[in-house]
Protein 1
Amino acid sequence: MKLLPPLLALAALPLLLGCGSSSSPTPQPSTATAPAQRHLSPEQLYLQCRACHGADGLGVSGINPPLQGSPYLDHDELMVPIILHGYRSGQWNGVMTGFAGRYSDEEMARLLNWMRQRWSPTAADTDAATVRRIRLSLGNRRAQWRPDELRERLSALSAEPEAKEP
Ligand code: HEC
């Protein structure tokens, strides 16, 4: 029996991160424990989403919604909760559970900026500090987000006074 040379096993790492069911016999490292010790490209970070939302962000008809044109994509206050805990509207046959612990704050910011560059180029960039602030504000929440909760978050946002009336 031949063992995989260690270098080859390392080269396969990014592929293993992509999906839950890997056919490789190499034991899969836990991505949840050490996000800070790796450097993944946005493309590699997006592998977590790609299986369902597609390489072009177009989704799968009836099953997984497109990210291109999603009304959520521009808003950190909606995207961070969705990525952390998942989303359930009941309008699609697929299921989206959360990715809490899979991404560092910096990685989630990098993933968000990359998706926006592709599918909503006029949206503002975000950063790790913003992701961290939102994550901490959500406390111990675990449940998937419902559309009405996200709508509430959005209207709370637009109700915030940006500039004081003179
Ligand atoms: C296992 C499949 C799956 C994976 C993996 C997945 N999603 Fe989803 N996602 C879904 C499904 C299904 C929905 C719709 C759920 C519903 O509406 O009930 C959804 C909804 C969304 C929405 C709301 C879109 C809209 O306009 O309604 C966003 C944003 C989103 N996902 C982003 C992501 C990101 C970013 C990732 C990667 C970190 C990801 N998803 C990974 C299946 C997935």
Protein 2
Amino acid sequence: MRGYLWGALLVCHCHRVNDATIRSIAREGARTAEEIGEACGAGTGCGGCKPAIAGLIVSEGASRGVASLPMILAPEPGT
Ligand code: FES
């Protein structure tokens, strides 16, 4: 299957970085797509993979119980 390399999904096509690499960097402490980019280049080309990178960061953080999705609070009715 195209885009699937040795059990990992190719996330950044510009720099050929797969999800396993991004997950590993996130587990080492990267918390933003920019930090992932500094570590491996992913997301520093066209930028089309940044949403996927952000999702992987959240996924890794959530699986370790140290991060959560940002919450948007609705205003109270009448405010
Ligand atoms: S696909 Fe990742 S920067 Fe273009």
